[in-house]
Amino acid sequence: MSFDAELYRERNTVERCINKIKAWRGLATRYDKTPDSYMAGLQLRGVLIRLGSLQPIT
Q1: Residue 29 within any structural domain of the chain
Q2: Please, are residues 26 and 45 in contact by the beta-carbon 8 Å criterion?
Q3: Please, how many CA atoms are within 13 Å of residue 39, restricted to the half-sphere of its CB?
């Protein structure tokens, strides 16, 4: 099996995103939460990550 740089790049991107999600305290402490509120927090964190990655308009 040979090294595939493109596959590695995509996998690394996904792993970094998952680590950003897991680092958020609101999701890390998910006990005493309903599935709906956990999913809402997950979606909120995804939006915040996406907004933080956008470039400002100049």
Answers
A1: yes
A2: yes
A3: 3
Residue carrying structure tokens 């709906």: 36
Digit-coded pLDDT (tens) for 33-52: 788 888 888 898 889 888 88
- CA distances (Å), origin 2, targets 8, 9, 18, 48: 11, 15, 26, 36
Tokens in use for 55? Answer: 């470039």
Residue 41 falls inside a structural domain: yes
DSSP structure class, residue 57: P
**Residue 15, in any domain of the structure:** yes
Total structural domains within the chain: 1
Check: pTM over 0.70? Answer yes or no.
no
